[in-house]
């Protein structure tokens, strides 16, 4: 090919490269803009801490709870972290979180600093709290003394006994208009629970939302309280809060009423956050 032909070929070829490059540039710019826009729109609605007890008798409930939470967080667009001990909990740390879920972690094995930070979080309404089952194990356990503030928080109670063999029980709703019971029947059955008992009825110090009918226990047992609250809130605290006495095993997540209760509770806890 002589120089003249090479010049013609070159001048005809370069504009094509330039056009192709510009097309690719604008496509890349457009896709980047869309991605950035999508990221901005997908900011999490809120952030939660999950303090989870691992191992032991309650592991199946914790595992099922974390699995449910993972799916629900994806569906509802919120972030959460899981802690297996409260050592990192400080006032500064808690500032970033609008919800604290105590997933069967007991009210002991907390440092004085983590206790103070949590008390401030609840007393001053800096976030909401959802507690399950083992969160009410109040007393002297594993060499730890009772946490007086936490006992008062849950109604001035101290753990007394539980149904080790477990029993099915019928839960009756008292405050039917409360948002956590939206779409639920007036009563529902929960299988194979431990049904903790306490040294006193917390009712005089808290607002009871639901009780278990001890006469419905199957199998029957002599381990009873009489009036037996199983869901309650403490309106004396600025933080929105709720405690569920049940939460021993993962089979609860097979109960549609429990799943609905949990969904309602999550929505209620972070409303207006």
Could you provide a short overview of the structure?
The protein has 273 residues and is α/β, with parallel strands linked by helices.
Describe it for me?
The longest helix is centred in the N-terminal third of the chain and has 39 residues. 34% of the residues lie in helices and 22% in strands. The N terminus is likely disordered. The protein is globular, with a radius of gyration of 27 Å. The strands form 2 sheets. A 9-stranded mixed sheet has the order 2-1-3-4-11-10-9-6-7, covered by helices on one side. A two-stranded antiparallel sheet has the order 5-8. It has 273 residues and is α/β, with parallel strands linked by helices. The chain folds into 2 domains: 43 residues; 223 residues, Class I glutamine amidotransferase (GATase) domain (Rossmann fold).
